[in-house]
Amino acid sequence: MTDILSAAEVVDEAARHAREIPQFTQSGPLGVTEAYAIQARSVARRLARGERLVGVKMGLTSRAKMAQVGVDEVIWGRLTDAMRLEEGASLSHAKYVHPRIEPELAFLLKKPIEGEMTAPEALACVEGIAPAMEIIDSRYRDFKFALPDVIADNSSSSGFVIGPWSSPARDFSNLGLVMEVNGRAVETGSTAAILGDPIRSLVAAARLAAAELGGLKAGWIILAGGATAAYSLKIGDNVRTTIQGLGAVSIRVEK
Ligand code: OOG
Ligand code: MG
To answer: Whose CA is nearest to atom 9 of ligand 1?
Structure first.
């Protein structure tokens, strides 16, 4: 327990001060269960500082993401209100270790999800869907980690921005998307890259995260996971993701 608490402090302090740390798995074995316990304790420190839990991010739900980081299991992390950026806002590069950005689809829940459910049941809990981007910032040196490391580090979560909400009544299983930086397309893909259909990511959230969090609550946001590889942010970047039929979402990067 002391180890879990001190590891939680290490990742939390690294995130707070944008300092890189060595991987835990390089100094000894770490199991997935212990890694999620570290994540829970490190986010508890954020909550103790006044942040509020507002949802869950799913990670490594596409082949492109798995290949980019060399980990091939679906993971999840906790989102707090302090991680949310306003649409069109600028973020300060200096507040991150080595930030990346990726195009995602966001779900807004209208009904709580307590545990495992089918895709149609999960869909019935969704109020809206929106184009979104996640800013990920692994606290580990060179953005390199093994599965337990990234889980302990809240699955690299550090920020997110959400575009306009649409009704989930439309078919969103295979919508084209493009992420542009200063007007140039850097990643293109489809929502189908997310587990074949992004609703499966919500089903996975129900299975993996709901029990541990005592349910996913109405009003929460669930990020389905990057549909393409992530892009390394540079000062001066204007990043915009457009999803076919859903509109666009953007952020700018400053010093
Ligand atoms: C791990 C987090 C993965 C996603 O959307 O797949 C993730 C990482 O890439 O550092 O957020
Ligand atoms: Mg992500």
So the answer is: 69
Among the bound ligands, name the one nearest to the CA of residue 59: 1
Check: CATH 3.40.5.10 for 4-254?
no
How far is the CA of 86 from the CAs of 49, 71, 89, 99, 120, in angstroms?
21, 30, 5, 17, 31
Distance CA 198, CA 190 (A): 10
The distance of Cα 185 from the centroid of its chain, to the nearest Å, equals 22
Coil, strand or helix at 187: strand
Tens digit of pLDDT for each residue in 90-126? 999 999 999 999 999 999 999 999 999 999 999 999 9
What is the largest distance, in Å, between two alpha-carbon atoms of the chain?
A: 50
Instruction: Kindly report, residue by residue over 150-168, the tens digit of the pLDDT.
Output: 999 999 999 999 999 999 9
Which is the closest atom of ligand 1 to the Cα of 104?
Answer: 5
CA atoms within 13 A on the CB side of 205: 32
Domain boundaries, the chain: 4-254
Residue 142, exposed/middle/buried by CB under 10 A (0-12, 13-18, 19+)?
Answer: exposed
Please report, for the chain, how many H helices and E strands are present, in that order. 7, 13
For a ligand 1 pocket test, name from 20, 69, 136 the mutation site with the most ligand atoms within 8 angstroms of its C-beta. 136
Which pTM value belongs to this model?
Answer: 0.98
